[in-house]
Structures are given as C-alpha cells and as structure tokens.
Amino acid sequence: MHEFSVAVSLVESASTEARRAGAVRVTGLLCRIGRLTHIDASVLSEAFGLAAENSMCAGAELRVETADLEAACPRCGKRFPVRRWEWRCPDCGSEGTDATGGDEIVLVSLEAEVPDEDPSA
Amino acid sequence: MKIPVLKRVLERNDHAAAENRARLEACSVSCFNLLGGAGSGKTSILEAVLPRVKESHRVGVLEGDLATTRDARRIAALQVPVVQLLTEGGCHLDASMVGRALDRLDLDGLDLLFVENVGNPICPASFDLGEHRRISVLSVTEGDDKPAKYPLLFKDVSCVLITKCDLLPYTNFNIEQAHRDLLRINPQAEIIRSDIKSYRGVDELARWIHDRAGRPAGAK
Predict the structure, then answer these.
(1) What is the pTM of this model?
(2) Residues B3-26: pLDDT tens digits?
(3) Is B152 exposed, middle or buried (0-12, 13-18, 19+ CB in 10 A)?
C-alpha cells in the first residue's frame, strides 16, 4: 500500500547518490526489503517505473532481495529466519528469541553510467 | 559502474522525523504515536484517557485520517487542542506532514502530544514521525492472529493496548495466545488490557503515560 511513497524516495536517494558519484544515468538498483513491511515487490517495481519517469532513474531495472525476521536460539546460539511465524530453532527445536530485522527498506547499491565510462567495457 | 550505497530508502522521512523530535524536545514535549487498524479503538481510548492525563499535563493531539474531521471533533469536545491531518487517501502519516501540523500547535504550551495515525495495521509502522514512543492498539474484534500477521505493528513499540476486552466472551479471541505472540516479537512491550465501557485499563494507561512524560527518548 505504501509502495508509491517508497518508490518516490527510492528515485530521490538513487539520483542523489548517482550524482554524487558523477554518474549521469542510473541503470539498475538493488534494494533489500524486509518481509514485515508487507511491501509487494511487483507493486513496488510498477510504482518505481512511474516515479522514475523523467528522472535519471528512468528505465532503470529494480531488483529486490527479501530480508526475513530473524531470531536467535537461546540453547545453541544459531540465528535463523522466522518464516510463517515458526519460532522453533531448525537445529535443536528451542523457541527463538531476540527477534531482529525484517523491517528494513534499504538501497543496497546502484549501477550507473558515468560520462567517460565506455558502456561496452 | 557499481555504486555501493547501503542507505535507508526513507532517509528523508527520517531526517524530517529527527527535526520534529528536536522541535518537541526544545519545548519539553513528549510525543506518543498511536498506531492500529481501522476501528481498533484508537480515538475511543484517547477520549477515555485524555481527561485523566489532562489533570496533570498540558496535552495536544494530531489526528491523522484519510477523510473527515470527525475524530478531531471528538477530541476537541474534551477541550484539548487538536489538529486534523487529512491524507486524502494516503495510507500513512509521514514526518513532513507532522512537521507542518506542529506549526499549528503552541508547543510551548504543551507537555504531551499524541499523534493518532491513519487506521491501518501495515504502512504507518514504517514511518518515524518524530515520536518518542509508540503505542499500538489491537482490538479483540480484529482477532488474536494479528500480532503474527502484522508483527511490524507491534515490534518497536513501548506499549500494546488490547482493547474491547468486554467482548472476549463473545469471540474466539485467545488472549493468552495474543500475549505470547506479542511478547515473542517484542519482549519489552507493556501490555495493557482495556475496555472503555467499564474504564478497565484506562487508569493503568494514564499512569503509564504519566510515568513516561518528560523522560528522555529511548527510555522505555
């Protein structure tokens, strides 16, 4: 539901970072999005396409990697993803604690063209 | 070329939120962001608790809604200064909207500010508004599965209010299950059971707010 707000912020952040690096055009973006945000990657891609029109991100490819909520096993110390509200440690079956992550909305990296860079290189 | 970034996408909102927080702290105002689904009882709990809180603190309210000024009128009836924020269909409040609303309040004349977010269990949780603490509202009529379905709503909050507890005998809401799930995602949360028909939990919430007014941000 809030994909469009995120898409607009994504275009702004990516354009700022690309300009800072001396680039003229963003061709690709990698985002990491926590599962708990309920952001739908396909809706985000669609919103990003619209938000990027007439910006230096126009036509850029958006890739989204998903991040899970993670818990720690109090017995064996393993950190594991909590999926479908399953809190048992996959190794020893203890109930996980110390939940972290799953809420991130992060721009990980960009692919961008700089003026003197040979695009065929 | 590849440019490593690793930045929060909502960085601009984070900056606006930090500005709001600094403005509030400059006037010694403690701010609470009230989150929950539509119809969970956010406005009703404010109506119940504000008269108690008002006895010892100067209180203001920002009412976030998609449309209508009904909630603001309910709060204004309590003689509490209120600003209605209309998102006109937007699913959440953001920090810049709250910043503009702060311009319309006399912050020097307040000790506490409550922001009632748009009724929505998903989107508002991702947007820092500059509050010091979050209070999430979960109503018995929504179902005990909501902490597992919408964990982000309950993850980084200081207090969870389980509202409409008078309806427990008429629903299959398993309150122990809800408690367990809430504590899994947020072991530090204060969980208060309430029912405003009998005023259950209202004093407890007023005390909880009272104990946190003026306390530094970050202290739970």
Answers:
(1) 0.92
(2) 999 999 999 999 999 999 999 999
(3) buried
Of A85, A99, A112, the CB nearest to B148: A85
CA dist., res. B110 & res. B97, Å (int): 19
How far is it, in rounded angstroms, from Cα A42 to Cα B76? 42
From the list A13, A23, A36, which residue is nearest B152 (CB)?
A: A36
Q: With contacts defined as CB-CB under 8 Å, which chain B residues touch A99?
A: 151, 155, 184-186
Reported ipTM: the value is 0.88
Question: What are B56's two structure tokens?
Answer: 């010892």
Q: Are B178 and B137 in contact (CB under 8 A)?
A: no
Q: Which residue has the tokens 């203001």?
A: B60
Partners of residue B3 in chain A, C-beta under 8 Å: 17-18, 21, 23, 109-112
